[in-house]
Design goal:
Length: 358
């Protein structure tokens, strides 16, 4: 018999004759505690009425009503219901079955020891496949987020109607989608590089995402400034760059680590909260994301169709000022992070299923 059994919020210690709920003792008579121990030890298996009467009452002559009262009291102590049992199930005319999952102290110790041991080093081909897959997933997630973000800014800020506005919207959406794809792929490859680590993979995912984000942020900034200088003779003095990319990349890496082994909804929330906070913080510290970069372009080239000034009214500003930029950066980061974390987690799960033995 194990020393400690855990089920739901309860802990049962047979040797100490104690049942506790969140650290507080639950009052039970001695016989009722013996009955609970027997049911828990036989988790998932039928315990007949005859066996309960024999092992709990130990030959003392009682009626089945005493057993019924015992089970009723146990259910009350556990907050259980006979009609919708979570712990003790009645098997009509035969006995009872404990149906809640039970964990023993020995199980928990084994899990802790396994967690402390370094994980198996993936084979070169397996690690490479995951690395490539994560880059591909990042490209898809980042591209989707960039497309949605570009369309949102285009619909909100492109001046004038007609075909010119439509073509400008298409160009802006295509440009932001390409930037999103490049950034997403870089962060995805960075997070995927953790596949080659033997331990602390969560930390490596965060570091890889940070490196990927910083690298692509710096490259996009340099390429963008050179392109504007080449085409127009001048370029905006401030655009998104390595610092902003690093902040988003590390947030995505941490989000992937947190969201693994959770449902898709949790992955979306984790990615959105972490990267949304990182995006807003980057702007508050003097950086720029897409909205701020577009505002800089608007200021540098007054004849452009893009006009974001009226968006400031949504955030209580007369222009697209620092509050507006921080708020929109948070929304941008949330969109990018949710799409990226979801895409990368789906790729991790797909790879895990494909790599698991039949």
């Amino acid at each position: 018999m194990a020393s400690v059994y855990s089920f739901g919020p309860f802990v049962l210690e047979p040797a100490n004759r104690r049942l506790s709920l969140n650290g507080r003792s639950v009052e039970l008579s001695g016989r009722y505690l013996d009955a609970l121990v027997l049911l828990v030890v036989e988790e998932g298996r039928l315990v007949t009425k005859a066996r309960l009467l024999d092992e709990v009452w130990k030959g003392v002559p009682v009626t089945e009503e005493a057993l019924t009262q015992c089970v009723r009291s146990l259910r009350k102590a556990l907050g259980d219901e006979a009609g919708r049992p979570r712990f003790i199930e009645t098997v009509p005319r035969h006995g009872y079955r404990f149906i809640a999952p039970v964990t023993t102290a020995e199980d928990l110790a084994g899990q802790r020891n396994a967690a402390l041991e370094p994980g198996p080093r993936p084979g070169r081909s397996q690690g490479l496949a995951l690395f490539v897959g994560m880059g591909r997933a990042g490209l898809i997630g980042g591209g989707a987020a960039g497309l949605v973000g570009g369309l949102a800014y285009g619909l909100a800020g492109i001046a004038d109607g007609g075909g010119g506005a439509l073509s400008s919207l298409v160009v802006l959406a295509a440009l932001t989608a390409v930037i999103g794809m490049i950034g997403g792929a870089s962060v995805g490859f960075g997070v995927g590089a953790a596949a080659f680590a033997t331990r602390h993979r969560g930390a490596w995912q965060a570091l890889g995402g940070a490196c990927g984000g910083a690298l692509v942020g710096g490259l996009v900034r340099l390429a963008g400034l050179d392109a504007f200088t080449l085409l127009f003779g001048s370029a905006p003095t401030t655009m998104t760059g390595a610092g902003e990319g690093l902040a988003l990349g590390v947030a995505i890496g941490v989000g992937v680590w947190i969201a693994q082994a959770r449902r898709r909804g949790a992955a979306l929330i984790a990615g959105a909260l972490l990267t949304g906070g990182a995006g807003a913080s980057a702007v508050l510290l003097g950086g720029r994301l897409l909205g701020g970069s577009l505002a800089a372009l608007e200021a540098q080239f007054p004849g452009a169709r893009l006009e974001l000034g009226h968006l400031g009214a949504l955030f209580g500003e007369a222009t697209f000022g620092p509050v507006s930029q921080a708020a929109t950066a948070g929304l941008e980061g949330a969109l990018f992070g949710a799409a990226m974390v979801l895409a990368l987690c789906l790729e991790l799960r797909r790879h895990a299923v494909g790599a698991s033995p039949p």
